[in-house]
TrEMBL record:
It holds the Pfam family Creatinase_N. Belongs to the peptidase M24B family. It comes from Leisingera caerulea (Phaeobacter caeruleus). Residues 17-152 form the Creatinase N-terminal domain. SUPFAM superfamilies: Creatinase/aminopeptidase (SSF55920), Creatinase/prolidase N-terminal domain (SSF53092). PANTHER family: XAA-PRO AMINOPEPTIDASE 1 (PTHR43763:SF6). The keyword Protease applies. This is Aminopeptidase P family protein. Keywords: Aminopeptidase, Hydrolase, Metal-binding, Protease. Residues 315-523 form the Peptidase M24 domain. Residues 537-596 form the Peptidase M24 C-terminal domain. GO terms for molecular function: aminopeptidase activity. InterPro entries: Creatin/AminoP/Spt16_N, Creatinase/aminopeptidase-like, Creatinase_N, Pept_M24, Pept_M24B, Peptidase_M24_C, X-Pro_aminopeptidase_P.
Length: 596
C-alpha cells in the first residue's frame, strides 16, 4: 500500500529529545531555538529527513513550529490542529494557538529580559526573519543564525531523498518547458530583472515539465533553479536523479550539483527576483541588495491551468469518482460494527489502484469515525483504529495522484442511523457547499471576499469551523497549491483556470466531525438577461462527481433552489459515473442519487 498505519511519533519520545536539545542550547550559549516544519525548499510537504518538528515533539501536522527555550517549549499550531496536538505531544510541550498568539509576542513574554534565539537559515524564509526581527526590535531579543541543533542530536536521521525524476508528457502539460521559460523570461525583462531564484519544488516541476518522488504523496523532486531573463535555466539537482531524462532538456537548461546553488546565487548580477515568503534566509543573504522582493514567477502561471491541464483534471476526477462510488457501495453493504477505519482506507486505496494511471495517493487518507472525525487531519494508526458503529459518522477525505490530474474529495457518511444533531449540522454544511458552488462573482475578487458564503448557514446557527473554505490544487502536482485560496487571508484574485477545493465542515470535539468537499475550476460566467454588459463575472464548474449522503440531509431545512441543485448534481453523478461501475455499484448509485 501507499499508506501505512504505523505510529510515526509518540508523546513519550519528546521529553528526552527536548532535554538533549536544551543541552545543545546551553553549549551554544543560546536562550532558544526555532524548529519549523520546513525544509530548504520551503514547500508545504517535507521528506522524512526533514521531519524535525515531528521527531522532536510528536506533532505530525502539516503546519506549525516549535520555539524551544530553557524553561518552556511552545508548539505553535493553527485551528486545524488544536485537537490533534493534545493527543500527540507530552506535557513538557505547551500548545500555543497560532496565529492568535504571534511568535514575537510569545518570545517577549517568555524572555522579558532579552536573549538570543537561534535558527537554521536554510529553514526559514527571508520574509519570516525580517518580520520577526522587526517585531522584536527593542525587546533585547536577537535572532542568531545557527547550524541545525536538531540534526546534531538526531542520531538516526534518514538520508536526504534521492529518487529518480521523470518527464511530464506535453499532452498532459499543455505547454512545452521552453515556451514556459520564454514566457516567464519576458516578464523578468519587463520588470527590469536579470534573473529569478526558484526554490519551491512544485514550481520547478511545473516550469521544466518534470515530476519526481522525493516527497511522499507529491510528485516533486528537491532542487533549486535560477531562471534568467534570456530564458536560460540553471537547475541545481543531483545528477543521479536525472539519469532517465536524456533528451528532455534542451540546451537552455544546464544542470549543476545542488551544493553549487548558493555560490551561483551570490554571483548573479543585476536585479534578481526572489519570493521573500519562500526564499531561505541564507539565499537572501547571498543575493544581498541585488534581491528584489517579488512573488515566485511560476506561482500564478501554474495556478491558471491551461486547456490540457483542465481536461486532464476533469478526466482524472471521473475515474476517481468511480472508485469513490464503488467504495461507498461496498461500505454501505457492511453491517455496523464489522469494519474499522483501516479497513475503509485499504479498500479505497485498492479500488484506486485499479487505475493504471495512478501514481500515488495525494495525501494520507483521513478516515475518522465517531470522535476521531472531529480531528480535522486525523491519521489512523494501528493504535487508534476504531470500528464504524451504528450512529457514527465517517469523515472520508482522500485523493489520488494520477498522471493527468490530482484529486481531493471528502464525503461524510452515515453508519447505521444518524442522530438529529448530526443531520442538522450536515445539512448546514451542505448548504454552505451549495451556496459557494452556485456563486457568481465580479472578476477581481479574492478568496477573502467570497469565502464567507460557504460559512453563512453555520454562522446563522452560531457555528463555524477552524480551517479555510478551500485551497488551490495542482495538475498532477501538490494537492495544496498556492497562491489562490478560499480563506480570509487570501488576497489573490481568482482567475479562470484556477482549481480550488470547496470544503466547509463542522467539528464537535469528542463527538463527531463533518466535512464535504468538491473541487471546482474558475470559469468565465455566461451572460444572463439581467447582466450588466460592462461587468465581467466569474463562476465555478464542478470537477468532482460522487453522491452526497441523502440519509444525512434534513430536506425540511433546504430551500427549493438547494433541493433543485442537489437533485441536479445527483443526476450528473449518475450520468457521468454510472457507466463506469460494476452492476452492484451501479444499482447502489441509482438509489443513492434518487431525487429528494
Amino acid at each position: 500500500m501507499y499508506q501505512t498505519f504505523d505510529v510515526t511519533a509518540r508523546p513519550e519520545q519528546g521529553p528526552p529529545r527536548l532535554a538533549a536539545l536544551r543541552k545543545e542550547l546551553a553549549a551554544e550559549a543560546l536562550d532558544g531555538f526555532l524548529v519549523p516544519r520546513a525544509d530548504a525548499h520551503q514547500g508545504e510537504y517535507v521528506a522524512p529527513h526533514d521531519e524535525r518538528l515531528s521527531w522532536l515533539t510528536g506533532f505530525t501536522g502539516s503546519a506549525g513550529f516549535c520555539a524551544v527555550l530553557q524553561n518552556i517549549a511552545g508548539v505553535f499550531i493553527d485551528g486545524r490542529y488544536r485537537t490533534q496536538v493534545k493527543r500527540q505531544v507530552a506535557a513538557e510541550y505547551t500548545p500555543v494557538p497560532w496565529p492568535d498568539v504571534q511568535l514575537a509576542d510569545w518570545l517577549k513574554e517568555q524572555l522579558p529580559h532579552g536573549g538570543k534565539v537561534g535558527f537554521d537559515p536554510w529553514l526559514h524564509a527571508a520574509g519570516q526573519i525580517t518580520s520577526l526581527t522587526k517585531e522584536l526590535k527593542g525587546s533585547g531579543i536577537t535572532l542568531a543564525q545557527s547550524e541545525n541543533l536538531v540534526d546534531r542530536i538526531w542520531q538516526d536521521q534518514p538520508a536526504p531523498p534521492m529518487q529518480p525524476v521523470a518527464a511530464h508528457p506535453l499532452d498532459y502539460a499543455g505547454e512545452s518547458a521552453a515556451d514556459k521559460c520564454a514566457r516567464l523570461a519576458k516578464g523578468l525583462q519587463g520588470a527590469g530583472q536579470t534573473a529569478a531564484v526558484i526554490t519551491l519544488p512544485d514550481s520547478i516541476m511545473w516550469l521544466l515539465n518534470i515530476r519526481g518522488s522525493d516527497v511522499a504523496r507529491n510528485p516533486v523532486a528537491h532542487g533549486f533553479a535560477i531562471l534568467h531573463s534570456d530564458a536560460r535555466v540553471d537547475l541545481f539537482m543531483a545528477a543521479e536523479k536525472l539519469e532517465g531524462l536524456q533528451g528532455h532538456f534542451d540546451s537552455s537548461v544546464t544542470v549543476h550539483p545542488p551544493e553549487e546553488f548558493l555560490g551561483a546565487a551570490a554571483a548573479l548580477n543585476g536585479s534578481v527576483a526572489a519570493d521573500t515568503g519562500t526564499v531561505p534566509q541564507i539565499v537572501a543573504d547571498a543575493l544581498g541588495d541585488r534581491m528584489i522582493p517579488a512573488g515566485d514567477p511560476c506561482a500564478l502561471p501554474k495556478a491558471r491551468k491551461n486547456v490540457a491541464e483542465i481536461a486532464g483534471s476533469a478526466a482524472a476526477h471521473l475515474r476517481d469518482g468511480a472508485a469513490i462510488v464503488e467504495m461507498l457501495a461496498w461500505l454501505d453493504a457492511q453491517a455496523p460494527g464489522t469494519i474499522t477505519e483501516i479497513d475503509a482506507v485499504k479498500k479505497l486505496e485498492a479500488l484506486r489502484r485499479e487505475d493504471p494511471t495512478l501514481r500515488d495517493i495525494s495525501f494520507e487518507t483521513i478516515a475518522g469515525t465517531g470522535e476521531n472525525g472531529a480531528v480535522m487531519h486525523y491519521r489512523v494508526t494501528e493504535e487508534t483504529d476504531t470500528r464504524l458503529e451504528d450512529g457514527h459518522l465517517l469523515v472520508l477525505d482522500s485523493g489520488g495522484q494520477y498522471l493527468d490530474g490530482t484529486t481531493d474529495i471528502t464525503r461524510t457518511i452515515a453508519i447505521g442511523t444518524p442522530g438529529e444533531a448530526e443531520r442538522a449540522a450536515y445539512t448546514r454544511v451542505l448548504q454552505g457547499m451549495i451556496a459557494m458552488t452556485r456563486l457568481r462573482w465580479p472578476k477581481g475578487l479574492a478568496g477573502r471576499d467570497i469565502e464567507a458564503i460557504g460559512r453563512m448557514p453555520l454562522w446563522l446557527a452560531g457555528q463555524d469551523f477552524n480551517h479555510g473554505l478551500g485551497h488551490g490544487v495542482g495538475a498532477y502536482l501538490s494537492v495544496h497549491e498556492g497562491p489562490q485560496r478560499l480563506a480570509r487571508t487570501s488576497h489573490v484574485p481568482l482567475e479562470p483556470g484556477m482549481i480550488l477545493s470547496n470544503e466547509p465542515g463542522y467539528y464537535r470535539e469528542g463527538a463527531f466531525g463533518i466535512r464535504i468537499e468538491n473541487l471546482l475550476v474558475v470559469e468565465q460566467a455566461p451572460a444572463l438577461d439581467t447582466s450588466d454588459p460592462e461587468r465581467d463575472m466569474l463562476c465555478w464548474r464542478t470537477l468532482t462527481f460522487a453522491p452526497l449522503d441523502r440519509r444525512l440531509v434534513d430536506a425540511s431545512m433546504l430551500t427549493a433552489d438547494e433541493k433543485d441543485w442537489l437533485d441536479s448534481y445527483h443526476r450528473e453523478v449518475a450520468a457521468k459515473i454510472g457507466p463506469q461501475l460494476s452492476p452492484a455499484a451501479k444499482a447502489w448509485l441509482d438509489a443513492a442519487t434518487a431525487p429528494l
